[in-house]
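WARN retry 2 of 3 for item q-0093 after timeout on previous attempt; input resubmitted unchanged.
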Amino acid sequence: MSKRHDTGSGPSQRQLRVGELIRRTLSDVLNRAEIHDPELNAMSITVGEVSCSPDLKVATVYVMPLMGSVPVEAAIAALARNKAELRHRVAGELTLKYAPDLRFRPDETFDRLDETRRLFADPAVQRDLGATDDTE
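OK item q-0093 returned
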């Protein structure tokens, strides 16, 4: 069987599948407040996305506190403090050779959506969009 070498065409199916399993596991653990840290358990944190490295040894977890209840930096600090326990929970759910190292980053998806909405609301963009509708 030959080895397939991707040249940066995006994540593989396995990376996507493992990332989604990690996201679900972390979401469940945080939702049920199963971590032995009262500060972390008091936070409502959304796990938006998990992207895995090609060798599945590193998982970057994009998180955001719900409704701005706490600063995102505080949530990431609390998650980083409990990284070992979270990694242990993830390892128990997955059947991988190695438990991935978890790295927590702020989820900026909503900020990008707001910026996109702002751009589409710009009168010059509206004018251009109206011009393309007339020509079709």
